[in-house]
Amino acid sequence: MAKKILIGIGAVVGVAVLAFAGLVGWLTIREYKPANLEDLEVLGGGEAPIAVGDSLTVLSQNTGYAGLGAESDFFMDGGKDVAPTKEQQADNLAGLSALLAGEGADVYFLQEVDTDSGRTRGVDQSNVYWDALRLGGLDGTGAYSSSHALNYSCDFVPFPWPPIGKVHSGLQTLSRFGVDSAQRIALPCPFSWPVRAANLKRCLLVSYVPLEGTDKQLVLVNLHLEAYDDGEGKAAQTKALMDFLTAEYEKGNYVIAGGDFNQTFPGALDAFPIQDAGLWTPGVLGEEMLPEGWRFACDLSVPSCRLLNHPYDPDPAGNQFYVIDGFILSPNVGLDSVETLDNQFQYTDHNPVSIRVTLEPS
């Protein structure tokens, strides 16, 4: 009898090992392997002119795939992974769409926008946000272009339990200005096989906008840097980012980079200290990383992100807050104002950050 039990246990273990090996092999074969540089399709209008001396507004919002609202937590942040219901997710998506349309920014940098994922029930969120601006924008013109760059594409993410499943997600840039071209530029991936096969492939979404009366361009860089690594990935990606930004500025271009850095801005830890070092802790951006004349643009008066170790607590003292969303501006881009909009993390775990800047004459 004991021998039969051992044989049975061995058979079950053998089947499990074979199934796991098969899954890893399948994910390896199907791994998303983008090129270092890829041209992206720019959809729609967005033909408003812009010239040196003009001002513009840019809003950055990590949308959290409309699945990380006030009701949610997340297993990677120490939570239990409280996922929204279908109705809650629809409410989050509608709320984010209305918020974006109501701001009427010239340019939007959006992160964690799903196009066809199990976690978002197959909804193409990029079209939802684009439609919100085209149909519900403040001026009613609907003249925005849209481009989307994948930074997470996997047929089946096998964790946690129940597993995440299929994910196709990334960055979206929406622009009122005419965009000559848009590119996906790969960033270093810190993960090795087999974890890499089902993990994010971070990138920059770069949009080139012509400036009237000159051969220079406005370079718009939408980003979402590494979150759950040992720190080396963030550092490598930040260096790649700065190398790219400075190269564009040296061409005489005007550069605005923004999004979710997953790193706190200078002074942010004084405003919102780390409460528990055992939970997720962001990296730190330092002023020394910026060449002369470059600047950060962030708002230290309002948190831009909350830790997802539990659903949102209406008592601010019950949450871990960060300032990890903001912008980097080249020396020829003057900062007029920056504001984090206090949305109480109702629809996502990030608050939107808005800047107004002026393209200064050389």
Task: Describe the 3D structure.
With about 350 residues, this protein is of the alpha+beta class. The chain folds into 2 domains: about 1-30; about 35-360, Deoxyribonuclease I, Chain A (4-Layer Sandwich). It is built from 5 helices and 18 strands. The strands form 4 sheets. It has a 7-stranded mixed sheet with strand order 1-7-8-9-10-16-13, with helices on one face. A hairpin with a 7-residue loop joins strand 5 and strand 6 (about 165-175).
Chart the SSEs and their pairings.
Elements: H1 2-29, E1 37-40, E2 43-44, E3 55-62, H2 86-103, E4 107-114, H3 125-136, E5 145-157, E6 165-175, E7 181-186, E8 203-210, E9 217-224, H4 232-250, E10 254-260, E11 263-264, H5 268-271, E12 283-284, E13 295-297, E14 305-306, E15 321-322, E16 325-329, E17 333-340, E18 353-359
Parallel strand pairs: 3-4, 9-10, 11-12
Antiparallel strand pairs: 1-7, 2-5, 3-18, 4-6, 5-6, 7-8, 8-9, 10-16, 13-16, 14-15, 17-18
Helix pairs in contact: 2-3
